[in-house]
């Protein structure tokens, strides 16, 4: 016999429960989100309805679990991939892995903060900024043979001029890449979700 899920009694309070619902109970998550607000769905674009349902304890618990999942997932994935890699090959650069995942988390938090602060225009800003960044890099690489002074504008060259060790180069580039990917996927996911 079919029994209707009473969504008012449920609180998604921890990130593991949210992760379980995201992967294995998508329809239940959609019903739960719609019970909080009719415009909220399984994509959990909570910034779109925060002014309307900001005081609802279910909404607050969902937002808290979402932030915890956003912070913990990259670090947990790094530990799991690192353990598997270490068991299979005997080596894994833990420092690089944690630096890259921390950069990804920072980028995802920046994307989330932009979506919370500017829910309508954050996607356009980040997309335009990313496009400008890629164009500058592409045009800069094409013009470097003609204008050698442009080579000093690239981050690796700046780090070389500062005389920093190679490990710092890798750390800075990993964080920069992680932040860029985190912001890009965070905003893209938010925009694609609605």
Describe this structure in words.
The protein has about 190 residues and is mainly α. The protein has 2 domains: about 1-70, no CATH class; about 95-194, no CATH class. It is about 70% helix and about 0% strand. It has 8 helices and no strands. The chain has helices spanning about 15-25, 25-35, 50-55, 55-90, 95-115, 120-145, 155-160, 165-194. It is flat. Residues about 1-5 have low confidence and may be disordered.
Provide a brief overview of the structure.
By secondary structure, this protein is mainly α. Helices cover 72% and strands 0% of the residues.
Keywords, separated by commas or semicolons:
194 residues, mainly alpha, 8 helices, 72% helix, flat
């Amino acid at each position: 016999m079919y029994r209707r899920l009473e969504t008012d009694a449920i609180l998604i309070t921890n990130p593991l429960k949210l992760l379980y619902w995201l992967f294995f109970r998508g329809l239940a998550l959609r019903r739960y989100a719609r019970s909080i607000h009719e415009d909220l769905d399984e994509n959990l674009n909570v910034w779109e309805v925060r002014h309307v349902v900001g005081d609802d304890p279910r909404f607050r618990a969902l937002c808290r679990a979402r932030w915890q999942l956003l912070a913990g997932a990259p670090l947990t994935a790094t530990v799991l991939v690192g353990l598997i890699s270490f068991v299979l090959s005997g080596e894994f650069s833990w420092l690089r892995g944690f630096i890259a995942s921390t950069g990804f988390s920072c980028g995802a938090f920046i994307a989330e903060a932009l979506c919370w602060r500017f829910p309508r225009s954050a996607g356009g800003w980040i997309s335009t900024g990313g496009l400008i960044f890629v164009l500058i890099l592409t045009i800069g690489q094409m013009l470097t043979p003609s204008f050698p002074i442009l080579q000093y504008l690239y981050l690796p060259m700046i780090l070389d001029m500062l005389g920093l060790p190679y490990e710092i180069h890798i750390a800075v580039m990993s964080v920069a890449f992680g932040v860029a990917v985190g912001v890009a996927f965070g905003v893209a996911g938010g925009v694609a979700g609605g």
